[in-house]
Specification:
Length: 131
């Protein structure tokens, strides 16, 4: 069970690696017919993509904080419930399960608004988007 917790923590911390290829995610969203000046479009695209990257990185940091808080709270609650229901053996098992589910819950509830920010940014600059 300890190995599972260690692997999960490594996975959550691994999410901190900045996702620099976010611009590729947005290529193809802009209707080419709405591009009148390719140089201005590229500058606008880069600007809006950078905003989205910053929001994505903030969401990753928030998810990490929520995961740590959820793991601590879940571990304490799991240990308490396990101890009440089955003694020290079950307290350890409850702590492990509570920590994993608490961390997962923390990550899952983190909002990410990078797509919305990119789309609004490009629309405000006069481009038509497909989605």
């Amino acid at each position: 069970m300890k190995k599972i917790i260690v692997l999960f923590v490594i996975f959550v911390l691994g999410c901190a690696i900045p996702y620099q290829r976010l611009g590729n995610k947005y290529k193809g969203r802009v209707d080419q017919a709405s591009i009148t000046d390719p140089i201005k479009y590229q500058a606008d695209f880069d600007y809006c993509t950078n905003i989205a990257i910053r929001l994505e990185q903030q969401a990753i940091q928030e998810a990490q904080s929520r995961a740590v808080g959820g793991a601590i709270f879940g571990g304490l609650m799991g240990a308490a419930l396990g101890g009440i229901l089955g003694g020290s053996h079950w307290a350890g098992q409850g702590a492990a399960v509570g920590a994993i589910s608490g961390a997962g819950s923390g990550v899952a509830t983190t909002p990410v608004h990078s797509d919305e920010a990119f789309c609004n940014c490009m629309k405000n600059r006069g481009y038509q988007l497909y989605w």
